[in-house]
Amino acid sequence: MTPETPQTRVEAGALPAPERASAFSLDVEEMSIREAVRAWFGKLRSGDPGALPSVLGLIVLVILFSQVSDQFLSAYNIGNIPGQGAYIAVIAMGLVFVLLLGEIDLSAGTAGGACAAFAAVGVFKGNLHDGLPGTLYWAIVIGMALVVGLAVWLKTYAGAVVVLLGLVLVLTNQTQHLVPALIAAVCIGAAIGIFNGYLVAKVGIPSFVVTLALFLAWQGVLQFALSGQPVNTSNYELWHDLTYGNLSVTNSWIFVTVIVSGYLAYTVLRSVRAKAAGLAHETMGLVLARGAVIATVAVLVTAWASQNRNTNPFKVIQGIPVPAAIAIVLMIGCTFVLTKTTWGRHLYATGGNIEAARRAGIDVVHMKVTAFALCSAFGALGGIMLASSQSSASLDLGSGNVLLFSVAAAVIGGTSLFGGRGRPRDAILGALVIAIIPNGLLLKTSLDPQWQQVITGVVLLIAAAVDAVSRRRSARG
């Protein structure tokens, strides 16, 4: 008779769930602080540097520009950086979804600019129907209606609902009001993304070609929408505050408290539940240590932001900048979607190996369409924030270097151009690098502005090289 062992009892189903899990040591291992540090170094050796290069780059730039000008580290200047880089961070965050698939969206900047222009015309003219050329208005309405049907056919039901909401807002003339106009602009962006995704995933046109063509087309649409005249957005307080506003001191502390306490509660609960289920989990010491570091940094930053940063005694500037708060909230939401949902895990799997994902039953077409939809929706939001930064919906809104800087931000932050690796935080870190370069150079009047492009290009080249080398090392391992 075969002696009874934990393994045979597991196979027979005689052990309860926690005990069944405990029969396998790998399933119940605890990640302590020491093991977490060892695992991090292991990732570095295997070719996954994560956010380390971008963080080191930030440190180098801060040290360099602090030597170039004593104004760089002033409270007023540091407080301006989030507003200067927020639109890049938002567009880059959308690009992360597409880059994870190994695709690219070159139209995100100009499409976002066109969407922001639609919102500006609707609010400024009081009627989107009369404010836009008749052909363009009906093209938008018919196009959105067709995209709703296309999204349903592609089983992208959430996208269909979003586009339908935008269509209703446009048809009922709610775009004469600011908030509905901004919502409609994001919905139009989602419609553009669904169309992009269809052309890439179903028709089979390479994403580079599709989005390059639309990059050019949306610049023309922007010109038609504005009829050759920029629209001032600084008169609308909410729109203006997207870049230049600050939370009150009280709201700043409430915001940080909610973010930090929510993170601590989530990580503690996750550890407790995993341990109770007999699964691999982080020790409470590791959870609390990480939470303590985050809480300390958050308190210090908030305390600093709560001080008056303005050198003008007649106006007080204090509190967390609104664009920083927007970027943080979006980053948290995107991180949750990518790491804690089935859709997010499927997106990583598709980007890692599309053929393996298809054979595993993942709807690859759906993943591509939804990724492009999110990318263009974020592009529209980024275009809205860019219009806020420029105080107008200008004739070149979203064109020029906007898209290039956004792609550079995602790559510099650590997102791989080859797909399968990247996080929303990469967009934030990369955008900080992109924003700091012109900020620091402009403080040194003796330096020509051309240095901005040179330094940004060199930083991007280094980031791409790190990505290629790390991927090669990972493949060898």
Question: Any key phrases for this structure?
Answer:
477 residues; mainly alpha; ABC transporter involved in vitamin B12 uptake, BtuC; two-stranded parallel sheet; two-stranded antiparallel sheet; 21 helices; disordered N terminus
Describe the secondary-structure layout.
Layout: H1 6-12, H2 17-22, E1 30-31, H3 33-46, H4 52-68, H5 75-99, H6 108-125, H7 128-131, H8 134-153, H9 157-171, H10 178-203, H11 207-226, E2 231-232, H12 237-244, H13 249-276, E3 281-282, H14 284-305, H15 322-340, H16 342-352, H17 354-359, H18 364-390, E4 392-393, H19 402-413, H20 424-442, H21 450-476
Parallel strand pairs: 1-3
Antiparallel strand pairs: 2-4
Keywords: Cell inner membrane, Cell membrane, Membrane, Sugar transport, Transmembrane, Transmembrane helix, Transport
Transmembrane segments: 50-69, 81-100, 106-124, 136-169, 181-201, 208-226, 246-266, 287-305, 317-338, 369-388, 400-420, 427-445, 451-469
Membrane topology: Multi-pass membrane protein
